[in-house]
Amino acid sequence: MKKKTWIFILTFIGIILIAGFTIPKETHPSGDTRIILEHNKSTYIAPSCFEQSNPTNYLEDAQLQDAADLNYEANGSCTEDAFESEQDALIISLLKDIGILNKKWDNR
């Protein structure tokens, strides 16, 4: 290849990398993120907020997608804060979405 072609390719890759690390993107919890369904109140609870949520005895271990399917709301501000989206760089967010990097909700 000619020298100009290599310069063009390297410049293009550099621009893509710089843009990927500077463009912001929100990272949301996955649909398979663990939650606790509170059926009496039609809400869901983040596991880290369970003790302070004052739950009843009609509970079910589930995933965030299950709560969305049932149209359940978050059980208080602690759960809302626990599942608030993160602001990441585009490349970091994409790496989290495909599973190469862990999301903050993966271990909850």
Record keyword descriptors for this entry.
four-stranded mixed beta sheet; 4 helices; 108 residues; rod-shaped; 6 strands; two-stranded antiparallel sheet
Give a written overview of the molecule.
The chain is an alpha+beta fold and about 110 residues long. It has two domains: about 1-30 and about 85-108, no CATH class; about 30-85, no CATH class. Helices cover about 35% and strands about 20% of the residues. The protein has four helices and six strands, in the order αββββαβαβα. A four-stranded mixed sheet has the order 4-2-3-5. Strands 1-6 form a two-stranded antiparallel ribbon. The longest helix has 20 residues, at about 5-20.
Number of helices: 4
Biggest sheet, open or closed, and with what strands and sense?
Answer: 4 strands, mixed
> Major sheet: order of its strands?
4-2-3-5
Record field, number of beta strands: 6
